[in-house]
Design a protein that fits this description.
This is XRE family transcriptional regulator. The chain is an all-alpha fold. Helix content is about 70%, strand content about 0%. It is built from 20 helices and no strands. Helix 2 crosses helix 4. It is globular. The chain starts with 18 loop residues before the first helix and ends with a helix.
């Protein structure tokens, strides 16, 4: 009889002793673990999904090796519980045994193995000094530049490797000063991964990256990076169609941090508030927030101590135009054209957004033909950078322009 999808998974004890299974557990290789469970237990993907409380489409991606890495302890616990891991297998996975009073397997060997592994990781982390942190920071900044030009899809493997390397160093760092630097860098890097996930419409992944970024920012005790990553997380809510919650979150962040962060970040937070208000259709609140943002915008493109934040007069003109576009503001077209003229050519995904907004503004002004070349270029850039978020907007706008042209 075929097993029910809801029947508990119970594999023969010998399966957990196999070398390939032990290797998968030690490496936290969940894709290999799931495939071995299916192979040795005849367990279907649906049954694994039900037992581990992981959505079946994601389980399918894990099997194929196309899912992002699993990082949350709670998910590892659900996997261990759902698959019925015995205590010695749980320990290989890096989890505490359920019954520490009742030995299972060769626990003396397992304990020594874990102690040796921890010692090796602590030794490796001890080699991370100021120079190594600087190298890791440079790598993150380079990935940020590549993301602006090429998009997240092109550098996805590099991003995963960078986050994993910083996480390993941070988790086992003992010296407080180095650990704090690594926490700050982890916050920046996880936040970048969060924004990349938003642009590929992987919103659950984005949320989780921002939660990791906030935890690291709190450990680093850096109000600026905490405010920034918390503010970016609000865009997950906006893209989910929950702008009221995003607006509430941004207002709280701005009120809590405005007196403790640099002026450029205050501009960013106020402009983000304005965008949420625009989505809600509150023109008064939107204009008030944008005016506050403009009032404190400093000169220059960015600050050395905030490499994650680039906003100048041209970027702000784009942001303002995108917001006021929703209210039919006649100055929107010029705002967006000014922003486009001032872009330095390295912000390909941002340029796609500007051209999409400009096409929308020209369409609203009754000039769909003038909108077409901007939409065409926006589509090229969005395709090149792999931004599904932009492509979705561009496809909707293309249909509207075609209707206006009677096609």
């Amino acid at each position: 009889m075929r097993a029910s999808a809801f029947e508990p998974i119970k594999l023969p004890p010998s399966v957990w002793e196999r070398d390939d299974m032990r290797e998968s557990l030690k490496n936290r290789d969940i894709a290999s673990l799931f495939r071995l469970v299916a192979k040795y237990g005849g367990i279907s993907q649906v049954r694994i999904a039900t037992a581990t409380e992981i959505a079946q489409p994601r389980v399918n991606k894990i099997f194929k090796g196309t899912a992002g890495p699993i990082e949350e302890l709670a998910v590892f616990e659900r996997i261990a519980t759902g698959l019925g891991l015995p205590d010695h297998a749980r320990m290989l996975l890096g989890l505490a045994p359920l019954d520490i009073a009742s030995p299972t397997g060769d626990l003396d060997d397992e304990h020594q193995e874990q102690t040796d592994e921890l010692a090796a990781r602590l030794e490796a982390a001890a080699a991370v000094d100021d120079t190594m942190v600087m190298i890791l920071r440079t790598d993150t900044n380079n990935l940020r530049l590549q993301d602006r030009r090429l998009g997240s899809v092109a550098i996805a493997d590099k991003m995963r490797a960078q986050i994993a390397q910083i996480e390993r160093a941070h988790r086992h760092a003992i010296r407080p000063r180095i650990r704090a630097q690594l926490a700050h860098l982890l916050a920046e890097t996880a936040s970048l991964a969060g924004w990349q996930a938003i642009n590929t419409v992987a919103l659950n992944d984005a949320w989780n990256h921002y939660e990791a970024a906030k935890a690291a920012a709190r450990e680093a005790e850096d109000a600026a990076v905490l405010a920034y990553v918390s503010g970016e997380q609000a865009y997950v809510l906006m893209d989910m169609g929950r702008p009221a919650e995003a607006a509430e979150l941004l207002q709280y962040i701005h009120a809590a941090h405005r007196n403790h962060v640099p002026a450029r970040l205050r501009t960013w937070l106020a402009a983000a508030e304005g965008e949420a208000a625009a989505i809600l259709g509150d023109e008064t609140a939107c204009r008030r927030a944008l005016d506050q943002a403009a009032a404190v915008l400093p000169e220059g493109d960015g600050d050395l101590d905030m490499p994650y934040l680039s906003i100048n007069v041209h970027h702000f003109a784009r942001w303002r135009g995108s917001c006021l576009l929703r209210f039919g503001d006649p100055g929107t077209v010029e705002d967006l054209r000014s922003s486009l003229a001032g872009m330095d050519g390295t912000y390909n995904r941002a340029e796609a957004g500007v051209r999409c907004d400009l096409g929308h503004a020209l369409l609203a002004a009754g000039d769909p033909e003038a909108a077409q070349p901007h939409i065409h270029r926006a589509k090229q850039l969005a395709t090149m950078t792999g931004s599904r978020r932009q492509r979705r907007r561009i496809d909707e706008l293309t249909q509207a322009v075609n209707r206006a042209l009677g096609r």
